[in-house]
From TrEMBL:
It catalyses: meso-2,6-diaminopimelate + H(+) = L-lysine + CO2. GO terms for molecular function: diaminopimelate decarboxylase activity; pyridoxal phosphate binding. Belongs to the Orn/Lys/Arg decarboxylase class-II family. LysA subfamily. Signal peptide: none annotated. Residues 18-354 form the Orn/DAP/Arg decarboxylase 2 C-terminal domain. Pyridoxal 5'-phosphate binds at residues 218, 356. It comes from Flavobacterium terrae. It comes from the Bacteria. Gene3D superfamilies: Alanine racemase, Lyase, Ornithine Decarboxylase, Chain A, domain 1. GO terms for biological process: lysine biosynthetic process via diaminopimelate. This is Diaminopimelate decarboxylase.
C-alpha cells in the first residue's frame, strides 16, 4: 500500500488502527500455490489464529483456501464465514475430550497429538476419520516460543512412540486418514524442513488409507529491508519432487497440505498509531504513541522487529528514537531506531502487522481495542469498529453496595 492511502485511512477512521492489504494476501496465496503447481491435489489451510477477522476468513474462502483451526471457536468462525466442515482441520493441544467431540460432531477434520486422547477417541468414535500429529524431533523456528517440533515440545506425538500409535489404531480399529507435522515458525533452512518431511513420509508408510499428508507451515517472512525469508519456490521444487515420488511408492494419490498463517497475512498488515509525545531524557529520545503492548505485544513477547516509518513526514532527516507505548510498565516497540524526524501528532506505521498482532491484543489498562480496515479494490472497508466504553463493561455484572 502507498503512504498516502495509509494516511487517508488514519484520517478517516482514526488511530490506532490495523490496516490489511487484500492484494498482498492474494499474491502471497498465489505465490504458495504456484510453488507447488505440479502437485495435483494441493490444499492450503489458512491458520486462523494469525488473524481471525471474519471478513479475512471470507477473503480466503474466495481464494479457495481451507482453514487450520486450534479451538472450537475458530471452527465456528470458519463455518460462519461459509467454509464447509470438511475444509476445516482442527488441531488442538491440551483441550478436553468434550471439545474434540463437539468439533467432530460439526464435521471438521480432527487432528490428534496425544496418545491418551487418541485411544479415548478411537474407542468411542472408531469410524470418524482422524489425522495424527507427529513430533519429528526436529528443531526449527526463530524463537523458543515458536519452535514446536523439538524433543521437549508439548506438541505432537513423538516419532519414537509410533509403536504405541500403531497399537492403539489396531486395537480400536479407528480410521487414520492423515499424517501431520509442524516444526515451528520462521523456518530458514529448507534442508531441515525436508529432513523432517522424510520422517513424515516414513511414518505415512504404516497407514494404508491416508487421504493427505500435512506439512504444517512456519515459512519466514522478511521483517526489514534485506531480511532473509524462506525460499518457498526452492522448497516447492524439492518437496514436490519428493512428494510425487512418494505417491507412486504409496500406491495412491494423496493431498499435500500446508497451514500457513504468518506467510499469508503478515506483510499485508500495517499498524498505524499517532505520536502523543516526544520526550528526551539524559540518553534517549522517546517517541510515545497512543498505543501499547495491549495492541501489539510481539516486540515485548517475542522480541520481534517491526519496521517503523513516519508516514506523516517520510522524507525528513533521520534521527534515533526509542518508540514506546502508553502502558504503565515497560512497553517498548523499538530501541534506538533510525526514523525520519518525529513530531507530536505524526502517524507512525508498523509493518508486518498482519499476523499475531490484533489477534493477541487485549484490554490491558482498560484500553479499547482498535478498529480494523481491509484495503481492497482501491477502497477502505471497515471490518471491525473501534471498541467503546460499553464494550469494556460487556458481560460484567455490577454489584450494588
Amino acid at each position: 500500500m502507498e503512504t498516502q492511502q495509509l494516511l487517508q485511512i488514519a484520517n478517516e477512521f482514526g488511530a490506532p488502527i490495523y490496516v490489511y492489504d487484500a492484494h498482498k494476501i492474494e499474491s502471497q496465496y498465489h505465490r504458495l500455490t504456484s510453488a507447488f503447481s505440479k502437485v495435483e491435489k494441493l490444499r492450503i489451510n489458512y491458520a486462523v489464529k494469525a488473524l481471525s477477522n471474519i471478513s479475512i476468513l471470507k477473503l480466503f474462502k474466495q481464494l479457495g483456501s481451507g482453514l487450520d483451526t486450534v479451538s472450537i471457536q475458530e471452527v465456528q468462525l470458519g463455518l460462519r464465514a461459509g467454509f464447509s466442515p470438511e475444509s476445516i482441520i482442527y488441531t488442538p493441544n491440551g483441550v478436553s475430550m468434550d471439545e474434540i467431540e463437539e468439533v467432530a460432531a460439526l464435521g471438521a477434520q480432527i487432528n490428534i497429538d496425544n496418545l491418551s486422547i487418541l485411544e479415548q477417541f478411537g474407542a468411542k468414535h472408531p469410524k470418524t476419520p482422524v489425522c495424527i500429529r507427529i513430533n519429528p524431533h526436529v528443531m526449527a523456528g526463530g524463537n523458543s516460543n515458536i519452535s514446536v517440533g523439538h524433543i521437549d515440545s508439548k506438541f505432537g506425538i513423538s516419532i519414537h512412540q509410533l509403536p504405541h500409535i500403531l497399537r492403539i489404531v489396531e486395537n480400536t480399529g479407528m480410521h487414520i486418514n492423515g499424517i501431520h507435522m509442524h516444526t515451528g515458525s520462521d523456518i530458514l533452512d529448507i534442508e531441515v524442513f525436508l529432513y523432517a518431511a522424510e520422517i513424515l513420509f516414513d511414518t505415512a508408510k504404516h497407514f494404508k488409507e491416508l487421504d493427505f499428508i500435512d506439512f504444517g507451515s512456519g515459512f519466514k517472512v522478511p521483517y526489514k529491508k534485506g531480511d532473509i525469508e524462506t525460499n518457498v519456490e526452492e522448497l516447492g521444487r524439492k518437496l514436490t519432487k519428493r512428494f510425487l515420488a512418494f505417491e507412486k511408492e504409496y500406491g495412491r494419490e494423496l493431498t499435500l497440505a500446508f497451514e500457513p498463517g504468518k506467510f499469508l497475512v503478515s506483510e499485508a498488515g500495517f499498524f498505524l498509531a499517532k505520536v502523543n509525545v516526544v520526550k528526551q531524557t539524559t540518553s534517549t529520545v522517546f517517541a510515545g504513541i497512543d498505543s501499547g503492548f495491549n495492541h501489539l505485544i510481539r516486540p515485548m513477547f517475542y522480541g520481534s522487529e517491526h519496521y517503523i516509518e513516519n508516514i506523516t513526514h517520510p522524507k525528513g532527516k533521520e534521527r534515533f528514537y526509542s518508540v514506546v507505548g502508553y502502558i504503565c510498565e515497560t512497553d517498548t516497540f523499538a530501541t534506538n531506531r533510525r526514523i525520519a524526524e518525529i513530531k507530536e501528532g505524526d502517524i507512525l506505521s508498523f509493518r508486518n502487522a498482519g499476523a499475531y498482532c490484533f489477534s493477541m491484543s487485549s484490554n490491558y489498562n482498560s484500553r479499547y481495542k482498535p478498529a480494523e480496515v481491509l484495503w481492497k479494490d482501491g477502497k477502505a472497508h471497515l471490518i471491525r469498529q473501534k471498541e467503546n466504553f460499553n464494550d469494556l463493561l460487556l458481560n460484567q455484572i455490577e454489584l450494588e453496595f
